[in-house]
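Methods — Computational structure assignment.
A single polypeptide chain was analysed. Its primary sequence is given first, followed by the predicted tertiary structure written as structure tokens.
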Amino acid sequence: MKALIEKIKQIWSIEELKNRIILTFSLILVYRIGSFVVLPGVDPDVIQEPGGIVNLINLFSGGAFSRASIMALGIMPYISASIIMQLAGIAVPAIQKMQSDGESGRKKITQYTRILTIAICALQAPGYLTQYVPKEAIMGGQGATFLWWLTSVILLIAGCVFAMWLGEKITDKGIGNGISILIMIGIIANLPGAFAAEILGKLGGDGGGFVILLLEIVFLVVVTVFSILLVQGTRRIAIQSTKRVVGARGSSQIEGGSRSYIPLKVNAAGVMPIIFAQALMFIPAMIPSFSSVFTNINGFWYNFIFALMIIIFTYFYTAITVNPKKIAEDLNRSGSFIPGVKPGENTANFIDTLLSRITLPGSILLSLIAILPVFAYQAGIKQEFALFYGGTSLLILVGVMLDTLQQVESHLLSRHYDGLMKGGKLKGRGAANAFQSAGNNTSSI
């Protein structure tokens, strides 16, 4: 406890980090307040509790969906727009050119993503009002007028755009990835209520009693630990750096240098495949004709398609975030090499093959954890609490928290403080140290 207090003091002593944390919490508070602002003329008490995939959408929005809030659509339309833009980058030459144009191209892509977000909101907002806000809840049961309908659509679009703006500000001026943090906050907001309902249910007459509740908690801890191990797991590639020694007459010779490693994550894509896959699974929920398959989150086909999409997105996101050819070029340029592997193309092929081998089991394990809530529900755990047994909820919580801790850790290490997780197993810290020790040799990797 004393060490933890000391770390908090160190964090608070860094002015920039303190300001970033305060700004982040302030914007999160604004987001949570906005989720309680109900659309004009709507009585949220009349709206029934959501079920199926709608319950999952409500979880991601922090309850704003079931309250008919101006932020009912949450941040997921922005995620969907980001997916579309990244997929378009594979097939559309104009977007490929923007991706290769550096900062100016990134700004253009961001602007197009924002415009696409508004378009997706314009399609989803009418579907939300039509399907999930009953007539009895509108204007005292009188139903919707055209003016109310138009105003509500505009407010839903504005709420999503405002949430998008908050996320971008957290990323730029705060700490962590803003969009992911907003999703995480929505999930955390539902955890206390779900846990309380599970306690009351299990300690009730036919709920199973304290022993069953204790077993559920133990299982939840085990799944959480396994999720952390999966997110942090790495495969180390040993690298050897050479050192050139200049002689008295200007001659030079190469001597053995330092030895280090490149840490390749088993799940290099992090939590993004889960967020991407879930965002796409939400889209059919707004289309009635797909409801029989895509709204039953405990059904076989929903979970099969969901798991398959996670595997695909894991490979896709790994491919766009890890470039074996660039790593090989950086190693060659810095005078480093992988023992037993020729520099250049052979090194790139070696890294690519190894990355493919570790990504397959990583993506399969990720998809299995994602569908664990179905088995928890079948075992008798309430649906609201079962969503935290693995699944999208737990993986996002673990991934986002670890990513945010790594950013805080970077600030501490840059000020020559011990890391936040000194003596712990935060892989981001180990990876960072590895690249620094690799020699100032592989600094550009």
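Note: The radius of gyration is 25 Å.
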